[in-house]
Amino acid sequence: MLTKNEIKDNAYAFIKDHENDTDEKQQAGAWIKDFLGGVFGLHNRKVNAGFEWRVKTKSTQQYIDHLLNGELLIEMKSRGQSLEKAKSQAYNYVMKLKKDDIPKYVMLCDFERIQLYDLDNGKEFGFPVVDLVDHIEVFNFLINKDIKVTTPQSPVNKKAAIRLEQLHIKLRELNYPPNATALLMTRIVFCLFAENTQIFEANQFHNYLINHTQEDGSDLVNKLNDLFIVLNTPKEERFQTEPLTDFEYVNGGLFKMQIPTGVVLNSEVRKMLIELTRLDWSEISPIVFGSMFEGAMDPESRHDLGAHFTSETNIIKVVDSLFLDDLTNEFEHIKGLKIGRLAKYRQFHEKLAELKFLDPACGSGNFLIVAYREIRRLEHEVIQRILYEEYLAENNNITAKDAEVIQYNNPLLSVDEYIKVEVSQFYGIEIQPYAASIARLGLWLMEHLMNLEASSKFGENIVRLPLHEGARITVGDALKLKWEDIVPASQLDYILGNPPFLGSAIMSKEQKDLLVSIANGNSKIKKLDFVAGWHIKSAFIMKKNPYIRTALVSTNSITQGEQAIILWHFLFEHGITINFAHRTFSWDNKGANVYVVIVGFGILESDKKYLFEYEHVRGDYHKRKVSSINEYLLGTNPVFIQQERKPISNNRPIERGSQPTDGGNLILSIEERNELLKEYGSMIEEYIRPFIGARELLYNIPRWILYLKDITPNELRKMPKIMDRIEKVRDMRLNSKSEATRKWAERPTDLQQDKAPSSDVLGIPKVSSENREYVPMSLLKHPAIPSDLLFQMREANLFVFGILQTKMHTAWLKTVGGRLKSDVRYSNTLVYNTFVFPEVTDSERVKIEGLAQSILNIREKYFEKDNTLADLYDPLVMPYDLRKAHNELDKAVEIAYNGKPFDSDEQRAEFLIKLYQKHKKTK
Fold first, then answer.
1. DSSP-assigned states of every residue in 151-182
2. Which residues make beta-bridge pairs with 587?
3. How many domains are there within the chain?
4. DSSP H or E segment with residue 713
5. Where in the numbering of this chain does the MmeI-like helicase spacer domain appear (predicted)?
6. Is the same domain home to 747 and 832?
7. Average pLDDT, the chain
8. Which residues contact 310 (CB under 8 A, 6 or more apart)?
9. Distance, CA of 224 to CA of 204 (rounded, Å)
10. Structural contact between residues 859 and 881, judged by C-beta atoms closer than 8 angstroms
11. First vs last Cα of the chain: how many Å apart?
12. Looking at 187-201, 534-548, 594-608, which range is the least confident one?
């Protein structure tokens, strides 16, 4: 079977090859053959057999352009011809086909646009042929996979969000109570949604506003409150008159609390609300509704709506790997049984109805909404099988084909009675009250949409009013609440969500102390990002019920550097194992792209573990089965890397550069250096040395420092401007809050941390952009002094320089090193000292040294043309000859390690980790 990426590659080629096709008679056959066989890999014999499929009638014989019997009917038209006519023609063919040949899907195409119809549920997918790659998943049925289509962006989403925001602002301007505004707007949105999705009559809410509220808006709040009371009152208990009594009884707690009345609004608010009723709210999915609503309620939470609608794709990554794939596989296994299917289906159905889910940082409920939707859709498939198996049992028929199952409906039974999955199985914790109310509403809305899907699937109208019991959303601080008070550990099955993305560097002391208290007083935990608290609390509740499984989205920093060591070693010690993981990819977080991972973990170890690896953070993933997953989300056992005081490969050590702690008084700009040289000449020249930090190294920015360690008092007194600078250094140190710095006031001519080298050194930036394939390092000529923003290696040689300037070392750095924001952070103790150099032959050493020198030579050529290291190592514009030289060096070094080159950074990192473990065992 082709991989997802192979299919996409095929699709790109297909689009290119057929971009000029227009004629049905001359080009349809080749187009269809390349579409089915070339893109999706269907066997030639199967494709060829489907052309010009004959359809017999009493008087004529007609031919279908192509038929995969039981699967797909394709009808082609020349470019520019009507697809509506083609649709009628195709549906006519379907009616005349034999039972076993009736397809599940009909596809129409005019070489410019594709229309695909799902005959089971009436869903329609339409898109230009040039966008085939973006919609490739709608053809999953061709490769025996379910179609999973995420929520498309609809123009009404953004328009509705803007108008909701405007309405909220206007309500606040008119002094409607802030605590009640969220409740009022939540109810309004429900009503807007209700009249577009068959809960209310069409335009029922719109007409109520138009005909029964004053044009000046003065009675709008009171009239809305009257409606809300009715929606919370059974019809037989109502005393109101029409049109209020015509509204359905909703209940479910949504309209239970009375809103503040007596507040006088105005015509502008009324007009805004009426305008909102004119939008088609059926186009807004509850999945995007919650975040849209948050943006309207809280300007600080506002984000790019266009970007946010892709987030369902990322939520599905959690849902699929945590539970849906396993449940689907279990269902497929039952379908393959020869006997006892009905009993197994019923047992499986009961299992679905008993599952309980917790999102302990649920926000507006997106994870719970998607999880509920997917469980309901699976339940519909199970119900369909149960109904048919019951029919077979009653008719003593022991065989059934899938086509018969799908077409079968029992008109004597009410499917509503079979639906058991409830939103009350879904629990959430949210600190913001308005977000919690949105989550409850979103789940109710999704329940209604699922009822509509069931109505379409089973051919009966399923509207479950009044609303069933709602989701269990608790308002509170998830790290302070006891989760077992919300859902008992013995009943809980899955924990999922994306807790707050808050980095350790910006956390408050209270938040750090909270993490420590959660971790039973482990003080190291305060170094972790805030999300670690949710991992730890999940681990502790899983210890009470080892059958609970968890999957959380988090910033990738908790699987890198020191954080990976602290968090995961703590969790491993408590019996946790990682069962699947999505390595780093990009996640939209309120308009900002954050680099995240998904980690699925539990007490019980899965017999099948998977890593999802991304070639690009915004690209597709490759799924890889592995035997173990470690703290760095690599396919090896846990590593337990510890900081090393000395290099384990016995190479020369590296150290931090010099830190003057001088208030800037010893550091010179080019103008200040020239001024001092002009005034004092050779008397000061030997005491001015280049001072190079990461910025100076990367961007070739000139900077100098007064290095006065060996200057004599007599020399100093002859240079008043230098004396003045020294006095300022002393004063700065005397006034420091640090006792250690105050002691250095007695030595104002010295650097507080003096690592000035007496020879050439290798300079290594402490922080470098994660986008670079290599951390740009440079051999610095004496008398340069690296600052404390560089690491330095004295008397470095070409071999060491060559090894460190490879993808092998970069892969190690990006795995075990820390992060500063998204940039990689170098470390001597955790990165360099733990890195295992290859054992090389003399010839291999000479080759590596020669290739390293080539890189230096190429750099020098570009330096002469005013290029900087930052220019040369920008991945977009890196010169070809420099890239080629690095590739040759990479190949030589990887052969020295492994005998052959590696295919990916994951392979490089896994190899180095195994090498590290082997090295430690032999020591």
1. PPP-HHHHHHHHHHHHHHHHHHHTT--HHHHH
2. 594
3. 5
4. helix 713-717
5. 182-255
6. yes
7. 87
8. 150, 588
9. 13
10. no
11. 46
12. 187-201
User: How far apart (Å, rounded) are the C-alpha atoms in residues 598 and 531?
Assistant: 12
What length does the chain have? 923
Cα 636 to the center of its chain, rounded Å = 23
Same domain, 325 and 237: no
Tell whether 301 is covered by a domain.
Answer: yes
The predicted pLDDT at position 306 comes to: 34
Report strand pairing: 688-692 vs 704-706: antiparallel
DSSP string, 312-340: HHHHHHHHIIIIIHHHHHHHHHHHT-SS-
CA 866 to chain centre: 40
Between the alpha carbon of residue 751 and those of residues 177, 433, 663, 733, 795, the distances in Å are 61, 54, 11, 11, 22
Cα–chain center distance at 291: 15
Distance CA 76, CA 83 (A): 9
Final residue belonging to a domain, choices 608, 636, 664? 636
Residue indicated by tokens 């020295």: 896
Asked whether the beta carbons of 481 and 342 are under 8 A apart, the reply is: no
- DSSP code for 244: G
Q: CB count, 10 Å around CB of 511? A: 16
DSSP secondary-structure letter at 20?
A: T
Tell how far CA 341 is from the center of its chain. 38
Residues 830 and 738 in one domain: yes
Which CATH number do you get for residue 87?
A: 3.90.1570
Domain shared by 431 and 344, yes or no: yes
Specify the DSSP element, H or E, that contains 768. Answer: strand 767-768
What is the rounded distance in angstroms from the CA atom of residue 374 to the CA atom of residue 450? 10
Give the three-state DSSP class for 719.
coil
Q: Which residues contact 402 (CB under 8 A, 6 or more apart)?
A: none
Cβ atoms within 10 Å, residue 151: 19
Q: Which two tokens stand for residue 48?
A: 């060829």
Same domain, 224 and 172: yes
Among residues 88, 116, 143, the one where a domain terminates is 143
- 87-96 long-range CB contacts below 8 Å, 24 or more apart? 87/115, 87/117, 90/64, 93/55, 93/62, 93/64, 94/119, 96/55, 96/56, 96/57, 96/62
Q: How far apart are CA 142 and CA 127, in angstroms?
A: 18
Both 691 and 820 in one domain: the answer is yes
| Whether residue 185 sits in one domain with residue 300 | yes
Separation CA 653–CA 646 (nearest Å): 7
Nearest to 373 by CA among 330, 328, 421: 421
CA distance 357 to 889: 51
With b for 16 or more beta-carbon neighbours within 10 A and e for fewer, the 544-582 pattern comes to eeeebbbbbbbbbbbbbbbbbbbbbbbbbeeebbbbbbb
- 8 A C-beta contact, residue 660 and residue 756: no
Q: Domain containing 110: what range?
A: 4-143
Distance, C-alpha 300 to centroid of its chain: 21
Encode pLDDT of 828-867 as tens digits. Answer: 999 999 999 999 999 999 999 999 999 999 999 999 999 9
Whether residue 492 lies inside any domain: the answer is no
pLDDT tens digits, 697-743: 999 999 999 999 999 999 999 999 999 999 999 999 999 999 999 99
**Could you tell me the pLDDT band of residue 153, with boundaries at 50, 70 and 90?**
very low
User: Rounded to whole angstroms, how far apart are CA atoms 738 and 672?
Assistant: 29
Task: Summarize pLDDT for 733-783 with one digit per residue, the tens.
Answer: 999 999 999 999 999 999 999 999 999 999 999 999 888 999 999 999 999
